[in-house]
Amino acid sequence: MGFWDTVTQEWKYRLLMFVSPAVLSMLIMFINAPAPFMIEPQVVPLDITRYEPLEGVFAPNLALQAVIAVGQDVLRSPEAMFASPDGKVYTIDDRAILYQIKSLRGSSEYAVEQVHAFGQANGRNLGGEFRSDGSLVLCNVPRGLFLFNLTTKKMTLLTDTVTVEEGKPPSRIFHANDLAVSADDQRVFFSDSVNYTLQGRVNPFHVSKMNAFEGVPRGRLLMYDFESNTTSELMSGLYFANGVALSKDEDFVLVAECFASRIHRLWLTGPKAGQVDIFARLPGFTDNLNRSPDGLSFWVAVTAPDPALWPILREQTKLRKHLSKLPQRWSPGPSRHGLVVNLDARSGEPRYSLQDPHGYISSITSAIEVDDKLYLGTIGLYFCGVLEDLRKVTRSVI
Ligand SMILES: *[C@@H]1O[C@H](CO)[C@@H](O)[C@H](O)[C@H]1NC(C)=O
Ligand SMILES: *[C@@H]1O[C@H](CO)[C@@H](O)[C@H](O)[C@H]1NC(C)=O
Ligand SMILES: *[C@@H]1O[C@H](CO)[C@@H](O)[C@H](O)[C@H]1NC(C)=O
Q: Average pLDDT, stretch 123-151?
């Protein structure tokens, strides 16, 4: 006989009378609590919540099961990966520490070596990319775009505001996320995911979730010009602008629209200059974009494959408002499924995908190709990944 059976009917009734008002009033308090947005959540257009099925090129495979976990229990959410002109690979984690990933004597073992601690009080450095002189351009939340000198460890602010045009109010850059530097080092194309901060909170994962729940596209594609020291807006109204990459000829720039599971192409030169078209649609939320070294393809990280709740939540503005108030760990998050996609650099057609449907590596945020290896950044995991013998692995999934 369990404890509950020994309690008399009368005491169960008394307990219920005592507990239910407390639970009820907590529920009422929760429902009436303000959401962390500035405006009421909006219905999300149907086109935005549509994503490609995990079929054909996107059908699950086990290619990422060969990934080697690197920096285990040292790194925390190493989101972006970037390579220096001399082929060294770096990442920055959410404690704002820059690490170099080192291969140990050409074997399949890797170690991470701390290069610099930026200090968490100085915000989160998300995307990074080197210029040919070895300086590093960094996207910082919430402060803007910086130049970092690895020798002197000096950070120089490049921009935190879009250059004021006549008749337009100045607009702060709050969520610089990913970037691409032109071959002549003069221009930096970068995304600004949302145009606000949430009471100074800079956890990018939290900010992105809040923007999804809110349902308002606030992202844009910006360009910083070193020569004139000006920043211009190239695109706006993107639903969490994320990965950015330039074509090899620099005739177009790509920007990933995370919650719309798609990539836009903005033509920079040629007869279509200034026009935008859809370059690719993907099977889930799209994160960083990187061109392959041969220039023939782009790697895109799909952080949350098959976001099945997304179409269901589309019209549920009240429910989304309440979900936004839940503690981080209780609110819906990405599926545990690793997915990166290789896209043809001209047509945008997916050539193949590499996956880990069992999610040993999942929530992949970036993929860069260096010397026949793919380096994978992640959000929420305590390591980054290295996939060796990339050409051999890709042959096995085609
Ligand atoms: C870093 O700073 C030093 C000292 O000012 C300078 O000599 C060097 O050229 C800088 N490096 C880069 C890559 O700008
Ligand atoms: C942010 O973007 C939204 C959507 O485009 C716009 O309505 C709003 O005015 C912008 N806010 C600021 C402060 O620029
Ligand atoms: C660029 O312009 C900004 C103001 O928009 C200024 O704060 C900054 O010092 C300038 N940087 C350089 C390198 O001239």
A: 96
- The SS3 call for residue 293 is coil
User: Which atom belonging to ligand 2 lies closest to the Cα atom of 171?
Assistant: 14
How far is residue 278's CA from residue 6's CA, in Å, rounded to a whole number? 66
Amino acid (1-letter code) at residue 269: T
Nearest ligand to the C-alpha atom of residue 219: 2
Question: 13: part of which helix (H) or strand (E)?
Answer: helix 9-32
Phi, psi of 71 (to 5 degrees): 75, 25
Please, what are the domains in the chain? 82-333+369-374 (2.120.10.30)
Per-residue model confidence as pLDDT tens digits over 13-35: 777 777 777 777 878 877 777 77
* 370 token code pair: 């260096």
Is the minimum distance from the CB of 175 to ligand 2 under 6 angstroms? no
- Is residue 83 very low, low, confident or very high in pLDDT (cuts 50, 70, 90)? very high
84 Cβ inside 6 Å of ligand 2:
no
The end-to-end CA distance of the chain, in Å, is: 61
Residues 6+ apart with CB under 8 A from 136: 82, 90, 128, 129, 130, 147, 148, 150
Peptide bond into 334 cis (omega under 30): no
pLDDT tops 60 at residue 382: yes
Quote helix, strand, coil % in the chain, to nearest 5: 20, 40, 40
Probe target for ligand 1 pocket from 116, 136, 151, with the most ligand atoms within 8 Å of CB: 151
Q: What is the mean pLDDT of residues 273-301?
A: 98
Ligand 2 within 6 A of CB of 195? yes
Q: Is 220 in the pocket of ligand 2 (CB under 6 A)?
A: no
From residue 307, give the alpha-carbon distance in Å to each of 4, 204, 265. 41, 19, 23
Residue whose C-alpha is closest to residue 76's, from 347, 363, 357: 363
- pLDDT-based confidence at residue 220 (cuts at 50, 70, 90): very high
Over the stretch 175-193, which tens digit does the pLDDT of each residue have?
999 999 999 999 999 999 9
The owner of tokens 């959540």 is 41
Span 315-341, mean pLDDT? 88
CA of 250 to the centre of ligand 2 (A): 29
Q: What is the pLDDT of residue 200?
A: 62
- The residue type of 219 is G
